[in-house]
Write a structure and sequence with these properties.
254 residues, mainly alpha, Helicase, Ruva Protein, domain 3, Cyclin A, domain 1, 14 helices
Amino acid sequence: MAAGALEPHVDEIIRTDLPRTFPDNIYFNHASASEDDDAYQQQLYRVLAAYAYHNPRVGYCQGLNYVAGLLLLVTHSEDTSFWLLKVLVENKLPDYYSPTMDGVITDMEVLSELVKEKMPDIHSHLNSVGLPWTVITTKWFMCLFAEVLPTETALRIWDCLFYEGSKILFRVGLSLIGRHKQDILRCDDFASVVQLFKDMTQDSFALHCHDFMQNVFRIPGTLKRSHIERLRSRISEEHRKAKEAKASESKTPL
């Protein structure tokens, strides 16, 4: 797969992220990879560079390296990985990887609202310890749970993502939080909550993908797409008004 000439800063960011992508995976770990396996990093570079050239509005956004990397591990094909990446970025998750990341910022707030509705005690507790939702959920959404959950579990989530769209991301988030509700409530400071959110994505619950996926469709209960879209619309409108107000303030003479 060949890509045209990239902007130098885009090329530099992609190359910087290559060794950070699945560093413990034998195919991406430069130190343990064979000469043939080492080609995975070069394949990943070509997929990311080709997509950045193909879609300059997105270019390259950190997080795409994990998405494209997992696609390569599954498909073993640069071309297939490129087209699947295009579907995810442009169809399944529009505006997640735009320069402003409006889509992913909105969806992190949507998850917060869903937790507030379904688990108000958890929402209140996390607010009381001063934990912004962006701290605990940015990687969930940006990496689509790749490099967050065990690979087999992440792939099962991606099956649902391609089939039914982004609603599965909220189901997974709600399931992880609901499953560890009592542990979260026992945390009484910022640091312990952050550590718990890291640990709970690698415990036995997350490791057994079949049981995990059954719980993903059980723990959150009813989750209608129409409700998610209403929350997205409301939050997006709030963001728009906030930006307009900020722009207006900046134009007001002192």
